[in-house]
């Protein structure tokens, strides 16, 4: 898969992406905004295992965000099942040196369209922590709408927090 955008190329993961991703992912400011399944510290072994697992899955739902063919982030969605098979949850992170250039908002809008088209979805959603104003803004820029504030719905780094539920309706 490859989506050529103005600010980045979103493409399939390659084994050779492991070193750059291990370097950029090893950042507490990224980890603090993601689920605990995202390792911290983040080692080269974690990067290799992530890429191996991602490449072995079908359909392919997680992609590298690349700039100048260097992997600088990840974006992916989890397809729901059964009666919720028209829905998917989307998630993403970007390397800190690349923040604030509109890269994620553009990638999010493109992958949202791709997921809807490929999997006949009617809904994509995300649930950033309430403190993550940058992610809320990225979702709004990509056309997502705030549906709910899920009060006291998560614990991160020992802190109970609300989550903001955003959705894009096809
Ligand atoms: C959230 C994240 C993906 C944003 O990536 P990015 O490429 O910098 O995002 P964009 O440049 O497309 O947009 C960022 C927007 O948030 C705004 N923003 C950034 N920090 C902000 C803050 N502290 N408060 C309010 N707005 C903020 C920017 O001004 C920009 O909006 P604008 O274009 O209207 O000025 C990146 O910061 C990241 O990887 N964070 C850690 C992981 C994470 O939070 N993942 C999402 C989990 S739900």
Structural features:
globular, 34% strand, alpha+beta, eight-stranded mixed beta sheet, 8 strands, 170 residues, binds coenzyme A
Describe the fold and architecture.
By secondary structure, the chain is α+β, with helices and mostly antiparallel strands. Helix content is 30%, strand content 34%. The chain contains five helices and eight strands, in the order ββαααβββαβαββ. Strands 1-2-3-4-5-6-8-7 form an eight-stranded mixed beta sheet, sandwiched between helices. Helix 4 links the parallel strand 5 and strand 6. The chain starts with a strand and ends with a strand. The mean pLDDT is 98. The site of coenzyme A has 22 residues, from strand 5, helix 4 and helix 5. Coenzyme A (COA) is lined by residues 30, 33-34, 91-94, 99-105, 126, 128, 132-135, 137-138.
Structure at a glance:
The chain is α+β, with helices and mostly antiparallel strands and 170 residues long. The protein has helices at residues 18-25, 28-31, 44-56, 103-119, 133-141; strands at residues 2-4, 9-11, 62-67, 70-79, 87-94, 123-126, 145-156, 159-169.
């Amino acid at each position: 898969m490859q989506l050529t955008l103005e600010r980045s190329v979103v493409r399939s993961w390659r084994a050779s992406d492991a070193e750059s991703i291990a370097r950029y992912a090893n950042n507490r400011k990224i980890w603090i905004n993601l689920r605990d399944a995202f390792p911290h510290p983040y080692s080269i072994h974690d990067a290799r295992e992530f890429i191996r697992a991602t490449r072995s899955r079908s359909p392919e739902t997680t992609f590298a965000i690349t700039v100048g063919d260097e992997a600088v982030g990840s974006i992916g969605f989890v397809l729901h099942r059964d009666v919720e098979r028209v829905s998917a949850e989307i998630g993403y992170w970007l390397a800190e040196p690349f923040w604030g250039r509109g890269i994620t908002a553009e990638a999010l809008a493109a992958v949202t369209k791709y997921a809807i088209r490929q999997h006949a979805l009617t809904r994509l959603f995300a649930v950033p922590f309430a403190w993550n104003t940058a992610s809320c803004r990225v979702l709004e820029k990509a056309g997502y709408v705030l549906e709910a504030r899920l009060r006291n719905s998560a614990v991160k780094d020992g802190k109970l927090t609300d989550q903001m539920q955003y959705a894009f309706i096809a």
